[in-house]
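Form P-L/3: holo structure prediction, ligand protoporphyrin IX containing FE.
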Amino acid sequence: MTNDPNQHLWWLASRASGIVAMLLLTAAVLLGLMLGGKLSQRLPKGLARLLGAEPRLVSKAHEQLSIAALIATGVHGVTLLGDAYIHPTLSQIAIPFTIEYRPMATGIGIVAGYIATALGLSFYARQRIGTQTWRKIHRFTLVAYGMAVIHTITAGTDGASAWLRTPMLASAALVTVLTLTRIASGSPATATARATASGVERAART
Ligand code: HEM
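OUTPUT (holo model):
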């Protein structure tokens, strides 16, 4: 191993794109959790004002961040092929748990990448799948996010370093809080059903 950074360009490119993928995925998940229901009530006041609490804008940002996260994940995996130290084959980066370098930790990242890609692309098939079904399966994005966090902490060279671990765990805590808040307040579909039911009840009483 040499200290010359030029000898490690592919590895550095893979690490950098991994971190970018994680940042984009986190931002996409956070915006996704803020979507639905009364947006202005879910967003922090400053952010809501900045965005004009315009659901369509937030939805577009969520979609574009998700696409960018998928592209960055692809770059992260493919650039590993050039790394002289890990030196994986194409099948090792495609088939989870077959790589020699930290197979479990890396495998979790590969599975996370597949889940995120499948769920991300399912957005464009939601008319065919049906919106309700699509919403249900889309929730599993949180599983991919959780796996990506575990992957980063266990596979990354800097997984144990505070600069990477602290923001990662802080954002994972925020995602957990927002998820629990969302479960507690009911999904938009549940809220709509509840509102409809109470409207029908009121109409029946009058
Ligand atoms: C949602 C998908 C993924 C995300 C968000 C992600 C993110 C990350 C991050 C942030 C790191 C830490 C980099 C560092 O410590 O500097 C990392 C490391 C790593 N990832 Fe991923 N990753 C994902 C999927 C994949 C895939 C598909 C592969 C394919 C082989 C992969 C292979 C690796 C390897 C080998 C490392 C260790 C690199 C090292 O630090 O030496 N990851 N990943």
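COMMENT: Confidence is low (pLDDT under 50) at residues 189-206.
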